[in-house]
Amino acid sequence: MLYSPKWSKAKKHLKSFVCDALRSRVDFQVINYRRAHDQLGRAVITVDKIEKLSMCTITAERAEYYKEWDIRRDLDDFDFDDVGKNISIQDEAHQQLKKEGIYGQYDFFFALEEYFNSSIENSLKSTDILIKILCLLDRRVGKRTLLKMKDSILTEHELVQEFYKLRCEAEKLNITT
After folding, report:
1. pTM exceeding 0.85
2. Side by side, which strands form the sheet with 26-31?
3. Helix axes 105-116, 7-17, angle to 10 degrees
4. What angle do CA 45, 61, 96 make, to 5 degrees?
5. C-alpha distances out from residue 74 to 68, 84, 174, Å
């Protein structure tokens, strides 16, 4: 599944949302492996040319496979004939991995789609780590909103906290407690 519309157009749109303080420091890349059976690869968010989040399809699918086995072991259910149950277990594994910050390239595209089609207010309320990160980079999130998030950010995934800290430092906001 290659991203549609074209990644170059989506990247330009995404970069237009990045706040001025980080525009030259943050970049988004999509690397597709032509020899891969599905031609998917990974999506990367870099800060100062250093990878901060790599969303590799192969890594995510391998982790999902092992997570599914863990779920089956916990349930003591190894009946592979029940298609509904198989789909449910796979979905549960996928959701758990997303909460852990393990994403495939396709997750990045789905998050982008949701981010582009939602208001910034709704996106800020999202439980998806990727969408939260995109919000923290977004110019529509102002300094007052960032300061209001100071306490609630402590309950977020460490990646979200890292991007929050990056944004606050870039905006020269004092967030130390």
Report:
1. yes
2. 26-31, 42-47, 50-56
3. 60
4. 80
5. 10, 18, 45
